[in-house]
Amino acid sequence: MTDFDLEKLLGTADSDPGCDEAGELMDAYCELVARGEPVTDRYAEFLTHMANCTACREDMEGLLAALRDLEEPDPR
Fold first, then answer.
1. Of 19, 27, 34, 41, which cross-links 67 as Cys (Cβ 3.0–4.6 Å)?
2. Do 56 and 50 meet the contact criterion of CB atoms below 8 Å apart?
3. Exposure letters 27-62 (e unless 16+ CB within 10 A, then b)
4. What per-residue confidence (pLDDT) applies to 6?
5. What are the distances in angstroms from CA 8 to CA 4, 19, 61, 64?
6. What dihedral angle (degrees, nearest 10) is formed by the CA atoms of 29, 31, 35, 39?
7. CA distances from 70 to 7, 39, 41, 51, 73 (A)
8. Where are the alpha helices (DSSP H) in 1-76?
9. CA 63 to CA 13: how far, in whole Å?
10. For residue 32, how far is the Cα from the chain centroid?
11. Contact 46/17 with Cβ under 8 angstroms?
12. 58-76 pLDDT tens trace
């Protein structure tokens, strides 16, 4: 088993704010990413939580996909 596999299974040892706090930052983070703006250190713990929590990561990926869909021109 690689270190990556272990980290994916056990999570990282870095500070993790938990689902509630990460959820409060998710909209702002996704908007930055969708606009292609740099992500600041403010989101370090948020990103740790995304690495540790599959459910929140799936929510974030869904929100990013929705934002990207909104930005694409309508083909009609």
1. 34
2. yes
3. eebbeebbeeeeeeeebebbbbbbbbbeebeebbee
4. 47
5. 6, 17, 17, 21
6. -10
7. 34, 21, 27, 26, 8
8. 3-10, 19-35, 44-52, 54-71
9. 26
10. 11
11. yes
12. 999 999 999 988 877 666 6
Q: Which two tokens stand for residue 43?
A: 């989101």
At 20-54, the pLDDT tens digits run 999 999 999 999 999 999 998 889 999 999 988 99
User: 56: closest CA among 12, 24, 31?
Assistant: 24
Quick check: 54 and 17 in contact, CB under 8 A? no
